[in-house]
Amino acid sequence: DYAVRIENVTKEYDDVVAVDDVSLNIRDEEFLTLLGPSGAGKTTLLHMIAGFTTPTSGDIHIDDEVVTNKPPYERNIGMVFQSMALFPHMTVAENIAFPLKMRRMEKVNRDERVQEMLDLIRLPEIADRDVSELSGGQQQRVAIARALSFKPSLLLLDEPLSSLDKKLREEMRHELLRIHRETNVTTVHVTHNQEEALTMADRMAVIQEGRIAQHAPTQELYAHPETAFVADFVGNTNMVYGTVVETDNPSCTVECTDSNLRIDCRTDVVGESVAEKDDVSVGIRFEDVRLGESISADNVFEATVSSVVFKGDMVNTTVQLDGTELEFKISDLNSDGNRVFERGDVVQVGWNGTDS
Ligand code: ADP
Ligand code: MG
């Protein structure tokens, strides 16, 4: 069953189409991530679900009720933004109780619910603190507690972790997932960070220029991106452009535009077939490329290492192929014996057709 159904929703501002004919169903209890670059229309879509923005056309259903023109307070939705926007002159308890007060819940019940929420965010002792005394991570937890205190049927998170530093951000990803597991509240999470999306989402919708480029379970979307944009935006991918010179569907040979390299590819991974002379883009994931002195794969080329960048848990190696400008970034974790190569080394680079 669906918690939210978005039907052909468009939002236009003067000369900008912020959201362009989007249809999207959100399942009960799932954690859905909307991933896309800045300006793609993520916030606009979220605000239409929340009721802060009215669609130019199309309809939004929440729990099988049309809410398209209903104001936010008539929708049972909790929301957390990047700027946490806690009420600064209130205590933690007053912040969390605020939505309950608005809903005229009695004080004794409010107090009980506040304590439940503080237990949920694992900060049971901070009820009487001023929010200004809290760390960034604690404030973020309180914002989540406030968004959930009135048991909304839907939780909307707009870049909730962007203002936190890297370490705290990673900790809070797990914290949000734990809270989702414990409450089972249907969650729509917006981010421009692909790693955050991959870590957190059950399902993912990639948004590009106001449209859904692809919507699928996270691992499926990662393994089978349907467009070059999705392949490039989700995961670390080398994009190569060329023309199909030979087909034996689902296999084909692509001659690169910028060089004479010929690459064997498989098109069944994206469920499409190609014809000769088609212009195509080929995406090859960093982790699918192997580097070594002698490797076997569908595509093997001699290459020269042009840069080696140490990244702590991996080494990004860039090579040049065939004296051309074609470059591949490769995680050296996949190279023979995890050997780290040096700039200038001549190596073999290879990957399988099924990986492109
Ligand atoms: P995202 O959240 O993905 O970064 P937004 O939804 O904020 O994207 O914006 C999508 C597009 O709509 C952008 O081009 C933005 O400039 C435009 N936009 C958003 N809100 C307004 C508004 N209130 N008035 C005019 N243009 C807007
Ligand atoms: Mg935004």
UniProtKB/TrEMBL annotation:
InterPro entries: AAA+_ATPase, ABC_SmlMolc_Importer, ABC_transporter-like_ATP-bd, ABC_transporter-like_CS, Mo/tungstate-bd_C_term_dom, P-loop_NTPase, Transp-assoc_OB_typ2. Keywords: ATP-binding, Molybdenum, Nucleotide-binding, Transport. One of its GO terms (molecular function) is ATP hydrolysis activity. SMART domains: AAA. It catalyses: tungstate(in) + ATP + H2O = tungstate(out) + ADP + phosphate + H(+). Coiled coil: none annotated. The keyword Kinase does not apply. It comes from the Archaea. Residues 4-234 form the ABC transporter domain. Signal peptide: none annotated. It holds the Pfam family TOBE_2. Its EC number is 7.3.2.6. GO terms for cellular component: ATP-binding cassette (ABC) transporter complex. It is found in: Cell membrane. It is a peripheral membrane protein. Belongs to the ABC transporter superfamily. Sulfate/tungstate importer (TC 3.A.1.6) family. The complex is composed of two ATP-binding proteins (WtpC), two transmembrane proteins (WtpB) and a solute-binding protein (WtpA). This is Molybdate/tungstate import ATP-binding protein WtpC. It comes from Natrarchaeobius chitinivorans. The lineage of its organism: Archaea, Methanobacteriati, Methanobacteriota, Stenosarchaea group, Halobacteria.
